[in-house]
Amino acid sequence: MAATPADPKPRANHSAKPTPDLAVILAGAGEGRRMGDYGPKLLIDVGGRPALVRVAETFLAHPATGELVVTVPVELEAEAVNALTRVANPRGVRVSIIPGGETRQESVALAIEALTIDLPFIAVHDVARVLVDAPLIDRVLSAAREHGAAIPALPLTDTIKEIVTGPGDDRIGRSVPREQLVAAQTPQIFASDILRRAHTHARETRAAATDEAGLAAAIGVPVSVVLGDERNRKLTVPSDLIILNALLRAGAAGEKQ
């Protein structure tokens, strides 16, 4: 009787689409007071499109994104919903818009509770960082998959001074070595259980931090740092809008060359 040949090894399916493993929280509930008459940042026009639309499009186009929750000022909820109806969502990612809390930290906590799909990782990104792109998301997500928590950051280039407050004025105290200092950016990405534990701890201890990396560090989680992006600057004051529009024009010009 002839021997039965061994089953051939299954061939890799290189056309298979990656399985989404990332829930995305877009923090956009800030009032944007420093933008003056421009109003809340999420609806400010940047290069012909609202900031929220630009950022949402970038994350919805990323193959890792499996769910997206946006926090917005309660009075702008209807406008935000209308803006997102113009965003391409070819994979049909679930998108939710919720009113934010009194602080950014509270808004993110509310967004975590609003997630409906149990995905392994959660990204938190400020809508004010309008020019976030796929390569940056890839770098941070790759590090988070390996280490459990990761943020993008840039080395400082300015000389950093410590201020000593006196009875009549503030004075220079000392220069702070900048070799170990970085400027943190978003998206900040964490294993889902890490971010949930960090926010639970913050709520129970009434602790506050300016970003999720600070909350994760408070529960002893080491946070990996990857190189950020100069274009991923934050829209904070009116002059930032001029710079962001210039970066967009420069990018468009470069693509045409």
Structure description:
- Helix content is 33%, strand content 24%.
- The relative contact order is 0.16.
- The protein has a single domain (22-242), classed as Spore Coat Polysaccharide Biosynthesis Protein SpsA, Chain A (Alpha-Beta Complex).
- α5 packs across α6 (212-218).
- It contains seven helices and twelve strands.
- The chain has helices spanning 51-61, 77-84, 104-114, 134-147, 192-205, 212-218, 238-256; strands at 22-27, 45-46, 49-50, 65-72, 94-99, 121-126, 149-155, 160-165, 170-176, 182-184, 188-191, 224-227.
Name the helicity range.
Answer: 25-40%
Q: Averaging pLDDT over every residue, what do you get? A: 88
What string, H for helix and E for strand, traces the elements in order?
Answer: EEEHEHEHEHEEEEEHHEH
- How many domains? The number is 1
CATH architecture: Alpha-Beta Complex
Biggest sheet descriptor? 8 strands, mixed
Strand composition percent: 15-25%
What's the number of extended β-strand segments?
12
> CATH superfamily assignment?
Spore Coat Polysaccharide Biosynthesis Protein SpsA, Chain A
Distance N to C terminus: 68 Å
- Our Rg estimate from Cα atoms comes to 21 Å
Here the CATH topology equals Spore Coat Polysaccharide Biosynthesis Protein SpsA, Chain A
Gross morphology:
globular
Unreliable residue stretches: 1-10, 253-257
Our count of helices gives 7
Q: What is the CATH C-level name?
A: Alpha Beta
| SSE-based structural type | alpha/beta
